[in-house]
Known about the structure:
The structure holds 2 protein chains of 2 kinds.
Chain A: H1 2-14, E1 21-25, E2 30-34, E3 41-42, H2 44-54, H3 65-82, H4 87-100, H5 114-128, H6 132-137, H7 139-149
Antiparallel strand pairs in A: 1-2, 2-3
Chain B: E1 2-5, H1 10-22, E2 27-30, E3 48-50, E4 56-57, H2 60-70, H3 77-103, H4 110-127, H5 140-153, H6 163-173, H7 176-186, H8 194-202, H9 237-249, E5 272-277, H10 288-307, E6 311-318, H11 323-332, H12 336-353, E7 360-363, H13 367-382, E8 386-396, E9 401-402, E10 408-411, E11 420-421, E12 438-442, E13 450-459, H14 461-478, H15 483-494, E14 500-501, E15 503-504, E16 521-522, H16 524-527, H17 530-539, H18 544-547, E17 553-560, H19 564-578, E18 587-591, E19 594-596, H20 611-614, H21 621-630, E20 638-640, H22 642-671, H23 683-704, H24 708-729, H25 731-734, H26 739-763, H27 768-778, H28 784-788, H29 817-827, H30 863-885, H31 890-910, H32 916-923, H33 936-942, H34 947-969, H35 974-994, H36 1000-1010, H37 1020-1024, H38 1031-1053, H39 1058-1078, H40 1084-1091
Parallel strand pairs in B: 1-2, 5-6, 5-17, 6-7, 17-18, 19-20
Antiparallel strand pairs in B: 1-3, 3-4, 8-9, 8-13, 10-11, 10-12, 13-14, 15-16
Amino acid sequence: MMALRELSSLEKSLGLKNPNKYCTQGDKKVPVLHSNNGPSLVGLVTIATHLVQEAKRPELLGGSAEHKALVQQWLEYRLTKVDGCHKDDIKTILKDLNSYLEDKVYLAGNQFTLADTLMYYGIHHIIVDLAIQEKEKHMNVTRWFDHVQHYTGVRHHLPPVVVLRNRVYTSGHH
Amino acid sequence: MKLFVSDGNPHCVKVLAVLEFTGVKCDVKHVNHEERVVPYLSRPALPALLLPSGTHLFSPNSICQYLIELNGQESSDIVNQWLEWEATELQPAVMHALHMVVLQGKGAETPRVLQGPLSYLDQSLSQRTTLFLTAEMVSVADVVLWAALYPILSDSSLVSGNQTLQLWFERVGMLAACVSAAQTVLQGKGLKAESLKTYLQRQPTTHHGQGQVQGRGTQPCNSPEGDDDDDDCVLSEEEIQSAAVTWGKGLTDLPMVPERQHPILPQEGKRNVLVTSALPYVNNVPHLGNIIGCVLSADVFARYGRLRGWNVLYVCGTDEYGTATENKAREEGLTAQQICDKYHAVHASIYQWFQVDFDFFGRTTTKKQTEIAQNIFWRLHERGFLLEDIVEQLRCEACQRFLADRFVEGTCPFCSYPEARGDQCDKCGKLINAVELREPTCKVCSQTPVVQSSKHLFLDLPKLEAELEQWLERSTGSGDWTANAKQITRSWVRDGLKPRCITRDLKWGTPVPHPDFSDKVFYVWFDAPIGYLSITANYTDQWEKWWKNPQQVELYNFMAKDNVPFHSVVFPCSLLGAQDNYTLVNHLVATEYLNYEDTKFSKSRGVGVFGDMAKDTGIPSDVWRFYLLYLRPEGQDSAFSWVDMATKNNSELLNNLGNFINRAGMFVSKFFESCVPAMALQQEDKRLLAQVGWELKQYINLMDRVKIRDALKCILNISRHGNQYIQVNEPWKKIKGDETDRQRSGTVTGVSVNVACLLSVMLQPYMPTVSHTIRQQLNAPPSVTGTLLQGTGNFVCSLPAGHHIGTVSPLFQKLESEQIESLKKRFGGQQPKTTAQPDVNAQPATTPASDPAAQTAVNGADAERARELTLAVAEQAEKVRTLKGQKAEKTVIGAEVTKLLELKKQLSLAEGKDPEPVLTKGKKNAQPATTPASDPAAQTAVNGADAERARELTLAVAEQAEKVRTLKGQKAEKTVIGAEVTKLLELKKQLSLAEGKDPEPVLTKGKKNAQPATTPASDPAAQTAVNGADAERARELTLAVAEQGEKVRTLKGQKAEKTVIGAEVTKLLELKKQLSLAEGKNPEPVLTKGKKK
């Protein structure tokens, strides 16, 4: 169900006028796009990629071959690692993303892409639950997240997460 | 550009095949599986491609796409779709299958795992007219899928059928690129490649069935088996049969858990377990975080150990020496000893209230402490592990004393953080020598202290480092150390150990016996852990049988993570250096922190619940224990929240656990005269036994490894299974049927009450009182505890046919949201509102008006009609239950629920009651569009144009309006306001009726304004667009409908209360209607379907 929300938000942020018809299939509720011309498309990333092309915004899929590959990689990561992840995996995800984002503004480098949008949607529930201390620990992720949530037109169906810019977690427990 | 691959790694087949296929030039490097090529990933990931820019790609599919792209081919939607399917559906199934075949030799089970994806692929191929997946030409999708399937499909014995798939597989496999990639990575041997086995062995276990350790709760995100509670496919026929066999064994003559006889001493041939929890510092009242961090966790484990028949000794006590006590004494005008006496009693009574079952709760200010600490000191001294040094110390002239670390604050010399403590900087975490602080201030009087030197003794940690490391390796390797404990210890040792001062210029402490240091005492971190020994010595003279007996004794230390270094490094060094065969910690169990409503506990700000206040809340000790343990910060910090506590109490304890145990007991007492009926097990019953047995094994497995919070979930899972079992089998109905039905009812009741009995045992460590109450109610034989938790757990029939149970009564009480709100205020300090607000409000207080008995007091309105309606309600309720049991379609259930609510309302009216309570509680936001006062009888009753009633109503309307205004003024939650508005409109409507007016106009108006945020169409703008078939709005509504549908499904899955579900169903129908309107359709069909019939 979340996937449909995401796609709807994506449609809006891409400025697509006519809403598409979706449904879901299988236990995992994989989204399906029914289109009038051509076969239906299955899978969140596939559909999202298709929407971006439909909206004539190819830059969102990455400019160069390298960037395209990075976008695809993080889209896949979102689906296979972030979605439905167990709480034990959360640490690893945050840690890995944090060190990846160390020297990058966005997931594919310096350009905002579809990977940022979908990763943002997918990781939102994790970030919402982080304690301030954990947010500070994963500074790069938090910074990226804040960036993306304020990127024009991205944050549609999700509540904003407050990110403090100065560190507040100063003391231990007592 | 460089491609890293490893032998035997099936993912590498993909990239090598595509590399050759495209002919792109690229170095290939073969590395070890373990090699961390991608610098930013914490686990090794192969294959990996180093891009010209210096970034790494680690996703095999993205690498393939990249290579293809370099070759000048764009990927299409359909290629993307196949790659996505491969990554999300096929790959997890393939990995699961490979694990089973290669590592577990369970080839026979692969079809089950792979059937879904394989037949999907087969069908898709059959429907195409092209030779390959996406075209007449091979695409990257073909190569990737082929490579993924290569190990499995190259072994024809594993999967049969799927002819089209087989043909396609062979066709792709003829490509030279594929042949050579398979040769390179798997030596062309497919599944039989030795390197594949090696590769798989190194992968983290990801699927259940591999090592019970993982269990259902820890499935990876992409496991093919889906949801956690989807256990239908987990149980094999053998497991089910063996559960039935175990069950049949009944209680054996296994020894009961023996009464504890003090003093408890280690025994030959027994598992001797010594449990300690970090000694709480005496000068403060402990808060919930302290309690869960040490004493409560240790208590659960100690209780569990005793149930398992281990020989457990659990000791703890208050840590009483130190400056803080001296200070407190000064504050309160008492001597240090008096302060300790006073607070020791406070601690003891708090732990007693929390039912912490120490074998001995002592204190550190005893003669034994002095004896043992001095003895260890001399031994260290004799063996040359102590150093003398001149120490510069901060002394506050105003306070006339040396300042302990915690009484100095200043600027961190490393990171310039201004509020660094005297021993450690909270910001950069570095340890600090207090004299190194810049701009130090005395925390007591804010004066600047001066530096004075005096001679002190140091424990020579560097000299003990090698021995420590050896021991650490053994202990952490064989024991259950929590991850944080290992990690903190590792970082301490890695940074290198330095000599550590063990003496202090204080009065209140254990005196240093050395004549050169006669005016000094031991520093608390040298002294305090020795408290474990001295407290045991105060318990028994034979304390050395525990503490100098590492051969026979296993030592568990429980603490919060800030205490780890002292238990894993400093104290073990003291004991190792003393060379007296001391028992060292085998299992170091450290929790993370518990926060309070997303902030920290703070005595000074009045934030949080402290041990002594818990009992004043009126919430039973067992419920506190349950919630704290449910939240236990295992692995990561957690936060106490009042609202969450109420939710967990109401949903888990009341509706799940309590409900099940109570129903099971009630059936026995009501239908079978308190005598457990005969049981003839059918397949379905055996399946439940197996499910329960599986959870029991999990529980034991987790508890053995001190995963206390996770083990609690097993208990709740069992009662969930139990509730479902009762719900499906309906013993209360079958008891009224024929002989076969009655027998069935007996079996289900008998099995259920036995599950309840098992739960009582499993609950004992967590909720001792509740556990005891259940066993009393069921009149359970004392030997149950011993038998059920033996070995890996045996779910046997412990209450056989003919067993008489006692009197059954409810175990838990609902926590009302008002009660919780007031507690939250009371303990909240000035807290900002928390973000997470579980919907306690959505829970109806009780199922209103559902009990016909309560309604006999009919108000004279129309007794006959009320009787009829009562019957109708009961019938309708039964119908809804049946439908749910049969998992009927949502719309069908929804329609029936709506009908039920309508009936209830009519009943209320007929009884002359104000129907509001039912409406507001049960349905809230759902009002009122779908439920107009359609019943003519009800209307006439109101319609009398009674002046008196009208006057009353006018007043009520005014009052209600005021209430709404106030709520709005206070910016209350929308749902709350919405409910009140609904009430207001209803009142207005009644007023209109009472005044003889046609209520309709009000209704329409009411519908507009009364809709709370969740139901769209609330703003006028949206309404104007209604007929315009506005796409935007339709989009929103489609989503809203889908979401609401999901919500209803979830609630049903959770077996939520009927009224709750009903309300949501009504909301759903309303949304659908609005959607129809927005799409320009006539909504009637939906409505009719929703309501009539």
